[in-house]
Design goal:
With 245 residues, this protein is mainly alpha-helical. It has a domain of 109 residues: 3-Layer(bab) Sandwich (minor pseudopilin epsh fold). 43% of the residues lie in helices and 9% in strands. Bound molecules: fe (ii) ion (FE2).
Length: 245
Amino acid sequence: MNKREFIKLAGLAGVAALGNPTGIIAAPASRKGISVLDGNAKAPFELPPLPYGFDALEPHIDKATMEIHHDKHHGAYVKNLNDAVKGSPYENLSLEEILAKVKVEDKAVRNNAGGHFNHSLFWKLLSPQKTTPSDKLKTAINGTFTSYEKFEEIFNTAAKGVFGSGWAWLIVTPGKKLSVISTPNQDNPLMENIVKERGTPILGLDVWEHAYYLKYHNVRAEYVTAFWNLVNWNEVDKLYAAATK
Ligand SMILES: [Fe+2]
């Protein structure tokens, strides 16, 4: 797939505009918990800048992929989300309130709110600097998965096992336990009406082909392996601490 085809795909990343979902009460969500992303913005949503340069994650993720992924794909989710919520009962909700309340059948809101949230979080979870998990998080990982190595293995299996497009996640469950899950498309663990195992995402990996195809082609496993060089454990630690308070 060449660059032009990628850009074309980016334009298709969003889905058709929302009709008029009914039965959603435009009131603040009752979900308790942390705000995973800074701030609690409402529509119109904006594309956040990358916290590093497009080429900062080289050689693990190449500059061209980051440019297209951020500007075109994430940009399309933001635009399509704003179009989808306009005039709908979701219009006055924050992004995380939308995720908590979105109905399965409201596909434009579901896909684009998920796409905006997932990518906003993903950029923050990557870092050009080498970081390591805190002792507290390491202890929790060892306690849950028996060892750090086993945790990576389980996460990698989840990431490689996503059929088609989706995400692998490390979450903190409502019982404050760690768990590894995967979600299809742009679904995520905050979607109360959609995912089976809900929780607060503290680490996520985008395994859509648009995240790796230019460099890794069809070999998702190599991209998944490279991801571990880029994890921003400082951010994961922060989210873990907030989710387990
Ligand atoms: Fe993506």
